Amino acid sequence: VSHHDARATPRRFVALTVVVARLAGLASRLLRRGHGRTLPGVVAERLQPGIAATLANQLPHGVVLITGTNGKTSTTRLVAAGLTAAGMSVVTNSSGSNLRQGVVSALVTGCNLRGRVRGDVGVFEVDEATLPLISTTIGPRLIVVLNLFRDQLDRFQELDEVAAVIRRGIEATDASVLLNADDPLVSHLVRSRGARTVEFFGIEESAGLGSRERPTEGESDRCPRCGRQMDYSHMFYAQLGHYSCPAGDYARPAPTVMLTRVASGGGGAVRFVVTHGDQRHVAASNIPGTYNLYNSLAAIATCHQLGVPVARAATAMASCPPAFGRSELIDVGGRTVTLVLVKNPAGYGQVIRTFLAGDPRSSVLLALNDRPADGRDVSWIWDAPLEELSGRSGAVVASGTRARELALRLRYAGVDADVRSTPSSAVDALLGRTAVGGRCYALATYTAMLELRRVLREHGTRERVRRVAA
Ligand SMILES: [Zn+2]
Asked: CA 128 to CA 141: how far, in whole Å?
């Protein structure tokens, strides 16, 4: 065996593994087994443990992992858009495939048939609980943590536990870290930097967002060092704000990439100013809401860490369409339905304030499912600020597999809901209370969103057929 052959064999084996794994994924999709997106990763790792690191190492600009409770998918898409605009070819995972197999599958399907990854950089959204496993497997260059909210209690008992898991994921690597300065649970994740680069992004008071009042979502706002309730000079939502411990042992770190001003643009777009050092750049987001501004800001800071000029990243992101279901406009017979994914109290608070507060006459459909992808435990709705829906003149429809519990929660909030058990009767009730040319809203957990989307599309098609026939 010549020297040349000894080196060539592993590469051939990588190529073979990639081919077999992708055929398995293809077969699964053809057979409609539903694992087509993650099966290539499972098969590839079975055939060749360590293939994920082999493939990730081929990416000249390395791998970025993005985690946190809310906004992973949106931020990942924005980062991919920013890096693509800077001329990089991006390997990324599809929405929801954020466990280990999903990430490995994205690498495998991003390969050519000779086992080489066709890309310059990997950008992957990663489930919080999976971060240690993926970061040890892949060795990222940058880990981004967006926020930590109470979510799906059947997976995670305590936010402190989630924070500990993410910290393990960070400490398992020498990756740089980019953290949300405004979330005390996140900003505290790196206790000692060592040789590691740690940067922060955050929203400044000058942006004119938030207030001095303390919102009511009941998230953690205790000092991560001593457990005292922290003082806030400014609040955005949940525990996000400008905080300091009264004992003086912890305070919000100074961000390097800051959102310093917000100005509304036309057509629902929001223009904002990002300040980095002495440079100021105007950026824009297609989706309103402070939570979306955090995603844009995090994405701009991420691109900047990878050497992309802030101005270029910001321009690319302004034209990036929203992630599937995160905020989707569906036209149904001349009515505009805004469909939004909500999966925890903080998300509900943000969506109500962003979309509903300024439009009290519109009707709204809330859908709560308790399937595994939604989270089996739905008790978090008792922490959602549904009181803010009382006093609306539009109808409130409750739907989903847990419609009755949702209606009970709404009754405690002073809201009489029209309970509809099936998605199609719920959509009928919503559209029945919305005039042609009018606007209404549907807020849903993950699987409920998929059902509503299908029903709304079918309604829209029927209406179009009817209009054409008339
Ligand atoms: Zn303290």
From this structure: 17
Distance (angstroms) between ligand 1 centre and the Cα of 243 equals 11
pTM: 0.77
On whether the CB atoms of residues 66 and 305 are closer than 8 A, the answer is no
Distance 230 CA to ligand 1 centre (A): 7
Q: Which pair of tokens denotes residue 46?
A: 């079975």
Across the chain, which has 470 residues, the per-10-residue mean pLDDT values are 45 78 75 66 82 92 95 92 93 81 87 87 94 93 93 62 93 96 95 89 92 63 87 89 94 96 70 90 81 93 94 83 67 89 86 86 95 85 91 94 95 94 95 92 93 89 65
Task: State the distance from the centre of ligand 1 to the C-alpha of 220, rounded, in angstroms.
Answer: 13
In the reported structure, the alpha carbon of residue 221 is separated from the centroid of ligand 1 by a whole-number distance in angstroms of: 11
Tokens of 255: 């961000």
Query: What DSSP string describes 139-167?
Result: --SEEEE-------TTT-S-HHHHHHHHH
Examine the residue annotation and report whether 359 is marked as an active-site residue of this protein: no
Distance CA 362, CA 337 (A): 10
Catalytic residue among 154, 249, 331, 377: 377
Task: Say if CB 291 and CB 280 are below 8 A apart.
Answer: no
